[in-house]
Design goal:
With 260 residues, the protein is an alpha+beta fold. 34% of the residues lie in helices and 16% in strands. It contains 10 helices and 10 strands.
Length: 260
C-alpha cells in the first residue's frame, strides 16, 4: 500500500516496526513451504496418458487442416463451364399472366416438362405449343391453358404426328383458340412493321444460335437500333438477351404474326 503501510485482517494499520521480525527466518528469507507429497504410480500413469492423448489430438488436427488448393485443382475450378441457360428455367408464374404482357414460359419447366407430347415429352418436343401459349396469354389474358394443355390440344388435333409440331398448327391451331395467326415473309421490313404495331411474332428457326435441329421462338418488341426481345422456350439465357432482328431472321424459315 502507499506510504509503506500494510493492513492486517481487522483493518488496523501496522507500522513497519510492528512487522519487523515476523514471518521471516533468521537468514532473512521467507520460510520454505513444506514439499508436496510425491505422486503415486497411478497418478504418474494418468498424467502420462493425458499427455499422450493431448499430443495425439494436436497431431490429428494439424494433419486435418488443408494446406491450400493445389495449383492444378485451383485451375480446374476456373475452367468449370458456366451453367447453361436451359438449366435455369423459371417460367412467369401463372398468377402474373395477363393480357398485354408476354410471359416467359419454358418447355423444361418442371411444372409440365415431363407431360407427354408428340410421342415424347413437353421438354423434348413442346417448343411450338409453348410459344403459342405465350402468344395466347398475351392476346387474351386467359390463364386456363398452360404449355402441357396446349400440347395436349395439339396432340388431339394431330398437329405433331412425327414428333415435331407442324407449321399449320401456328395458323389453324391458333384459329381454333380464337386468335389469328398470319404467315408473312421473313424480311426485316415485314417483321419490323408487325413488332412496331405491338404484335407478337413466332419464328420457326433452323440450326444456328437457337437450335441444332429446328425450333420455335417468339419475338416481341423492337427498338430504334433494330434489337428485338426473344422469348425462347428452351433457354432463359437467350431470352434474357436482346437480338438483332436481321441476325435472327437470317436463321429463320417461317414467320407468323398474331392478333386477337
Amino acid at each position: 500500500m502507499p506510504g509503506g503501510v500494510s493492513g492486517n485482517r481487522n483493518g488496523r494499520a501496522r507500522t513497519p516496526g510492528a512487522m519487523r521480525g515476523r514471518g521471516r527466518s533468521r537468514s532473512g528469507y521467507a520460510p520454505r513451504r513444506q514439499a508436496a507429497p510425491p505422486l503415486s504410480k497411478l497418478g504418474i500413469a494418468l498424467r502420462a496418458i493425458v499427455c499422450c492423448l493431448f499430443i495425439a489430438v494436436i497431431g490429428i488436427a494439424c494433419t486435418a487442416v488443408p494446406a491450400g488448393i493445389a495449383p492444378q485443382d485451383e485451375q480446374k475450378l476456373f475452367d468449370m463451364p458456366l451453367l447453361d441457360g436451359t438449366q435455369l428455367m423459371v417460367s412467369t408464374p401463372r398468377s402474373q399472366w395477363k393480357q398485354g404482357e408476354l410471359p416467359y414460359l419454358f418447355q423444361t419447366d418442371p411444372l409440365w416438362s415431363e407431360k407427354p407430347y408428340a410421342g415424347g415429352t413437353v421438354r423434348a418436343n413442346g417448343c411450338g405449343p409453348t410459344c403459342l401459349t405465350m402468344v395466347y396469354v398475351f392476346l387474351t389474358g386467359d390463364t386456363s391453358i398452360d404449355p402441357a394443355q396446349m400440347c395436349a390440344f395439339a396432340d388431339a388435333g394431330n398437329y405433331a404426328p412425327t414428333g415435331s409440331t407442324e407449321w399449320i398448327f401456328m395458323t389453324r391451331g391458333a384459329a381454333s383458340l380464337g386468335i389469328t395467326g398470319r404467315s408473312i415473309g421473313a424480311s426485316v421490313s415485314a417483321v419490323s412493321a408487325a413488332l412496331e404495331a405491338g404484335q407478337p411474332v413466332i419464328c420457326a428457326v433452323r440450326p444456328g444460335d437457337f437450335t441444332s435441329i429446328g425450333h420455335y421462338i417468339v419475338l416481341y418488341g423492337i427498338d430504334e437500333r433494330g434489337m428485338v426481345g426473344v422469348h425462347d422456350p428452351n433457354s432463359s439465357l437467350r431470352s434474357a438477351q436482346a437480338w438483332r432482328l436481321d441476325w435472327v431472321l437470317a436463321q429463320t424459315n417461317a414467320v407468323w404474326t398474331y392478333t386477337a
